[in-house]
Amino acid sequence: MEQRRWQNGHSAGSHLVWRHLIEVVGVGLARVHLVVDPVETAGEHCSEHQVRVGCPIAEADLDAETGRWKEAEKLLGRNTNVRKKAEHEATLAQKAAASAKREYLDAKQTRIEAENIAKDEERALKEALKRAEAETKARKEFEEDIAAEKQARKDAGAKKEAAAKAKDNAEERALEQARLREEAKELVRKKAEKRTKELEEARQRGELAEAEAERVAEALRMEVKVKLNDLKAKEDTMSHDDYIKARIGIKAVTVNFDVLGHANGKRDDLQQIDGIDSGLEGKLNVLGITTLDQLAKMTDDIADDVNEAIEYFPGRVKRQLWAEQARILTE
């Protein structure tokens, strides 16, 4: 805002009254106006002619006023420098403020990104813990199943051993009694002993074959159980249909294809069988049964194995007479 201030004065014995107007405009900016008024005083005075040609008194006052004007000029210069310095400092302050704002915005963006990354990591950690928990649970259940199977097998072995021992003892007593009874009939006894020996050998061979078959079947069941447990741990990563198909594919080894035979690329419409829809046909295809001829060759035991493998209602394959229907369709 402009500020104006008049200063009046006169020199002793001067016939002039002088005034200079100082105008302050803005920061460090001033204008000086000098006004000299010829006024009569009580003493001597200069005539108008003297003023025009150069009155000594007026010249002295003018010189003094000029000095003051120069001082005002110096003041103006100093104020101008102060103003420029203030403006420069204000500019620097504005730049510093802008830089600080940019740094703040950058820091804020970095913080937001870091928080987002932290949230993603937290979600990933929760998923990993969930999968680890499921794996641990599946493994624990599997170990419990193995322990139960081992105990059951041990108990079955003990029962079988006791039964065999009792049977052997009974046979030995029978042989001894037969020997005592047939002592007088040596030829008959020898033939009977020979026959008994042959029967015993045949029985033992049958028991060995049966035991071997049971051992192979038990190993196969354990292998299937292991694979099913491993698949269970991956269930969350698969669709329901893919999981069911994978289970059926694992159980395919329990079906006796030596009896059923292999399709070798042949494919029949299995839905001709009453009770087989598109879903069951797809499961049978995954199992490896794609022809009516294979279904026709099913025995009751194989039908139960197929029923179990495709996870159908227990006994439904036999009750719906799939094998009998297939035999009629293939005649």
Q: Provide the structure class.
A: mainly alpha
What is the gyration radius calculated from CA atoms? Answer: 60 Å
Q: What's the number of extended β-strand segments?
A: 3
Order of helices and strands: EEEHHHHHHHHHH
Q: What order do the strands of the largest sheet run in, or round the barrel if closed? A: 1-2-3
Main attributes of the structure:
single chain, 331 residues, mainly alpha, 3-stranded antiparallel beta sheet, 71% helix, disordered N terminus
Question: What's a concise summary of this model?
Answer:
With 331 residues, this protein is mainly alpha-helical.
Report what the structure shows.
With 331 residues, the protein is mainly α. It has a 3-stranded antiparallel beta sheet, with helices on one face. Helix 2 packs antiparallel against helix 3 and helix 3 packs antiparallel against helix 4. The longest helix has 126 residues.
